[in-house]
User: Fold these one by one.
Assistant:
Number 1:
Amino acid sequence: MNAYLGFGLYFCVGVIGGLIGAKLKIPAGILIGAMLSVIICKLFMQSDWEMPGGLNFVTQVLVGVMVASTFHPAMLKTLKVIALPVVLSSLMLICAGGLIALLLSRLNLLDSATAYIATSPGAMTALIPMSMEGSGNPLIVTCFHFFRLLLILFTAPWILKALSSFTR
């Protein structure tokens, strides 16, 4: 099967999974539903098609446009108020990811680029394409971010409940 037909199949299966995820009203249901449905399809079909050339560029542009479209000038006013916690929490997450990456690469479990991109906080939609550009192993980076996202989504309701009862 050629790349465009394979992509068409993945896209259709992803749309169905995304619709199911949205209907179930789970956090990030569209994203998780699309990913899980394509993974299940690939497992059942025992096949792996290459994505058409140029799709990575188009996808990154679309993600960039989607993220930028959420910007509002009022965010700058809000950022002035919360700048210190934003910077501190971001630096702590980046440092934690860097330390874990250092450990994984020193233990020869992963190369340093893959380890850093895989353990970096942030959107998998940005970090996976970064790994595809030659900075790391996209399969490993995808595994890290995919399973971290699932773990966060499954544990968040309990953690939020515990935090709200603890802070009362």
Number 2:
Amino acid sequence: MDLPDAPIAKQGSYVAHFLTVADQPRSSQFYVGILGGRVVRGPDPTYIKLANSWIILTSGGGPTPDKPTVMLETPKDLNKVSSFLNLQ
């Protein structure tokens, strides 16, 4: 990632919201085309600069050495959520 393009806050902080998605190109189109973000790096993971934040899209996977029992996967039931992103 080219650091001048990274959404690093000069003051305060920034938010990085990590999303496991089934279709990164389609998800990227939403965050770029609708919300005005900009793809900084990708694919998998895809980093999208959006104001003072990052939207990070991944296809999932795992486990990793630091989380040997954790798997990232897309939701099995789209009517049940464990988090949401509220942008205002």
